[in-house]
Write a structure and sequence with these properties.
This protein is mainly alpha-helical. The chain has three helices and two strands; from the N terminus they run H-H-H-E-E. The longest helix is centred in the N-terminal third of the chain and has 15 residues. It is globular.
Length: 78
């Protein structure tokens, strides 16, 4: 889903934010589509769940996604 480059100077969470942003703009992720849970994505990318949580929080603050407690994070309509 999101590819990380450990040689990139950008922090990991910014790479995740940029990756999801690009997928939303390209239409890969549609409005209303559920994003992987924090734990699922952390396991898939082999990184700390706090990093994923920080990326999701950033995406939510920028209006790209919305999170519903107990249900998950979803792409907002642009």
């Amino acid at each position: 889903m999101v590819h990380l480059d450990y040689r990139d100077a950008r922090p990991i969470y910014i790479q995740i934010v940029d990756g999801f942003r690009a997928q939303i703009l390209a239409g890969v992720l549609q409005s209303g589509e559920k994003l992987p849970s924090v734990r699922e994505l952390a396991t898939e990318l082999s990184i700390n769940p706090n990093t994923i949580q920080r990326a999701y929080r950033e995406l939510e603050q920028e209006g790209w996604i919305e999170s519903t407690p107990g249900k998950g994070s979803f792409v907002r309509s642009i």
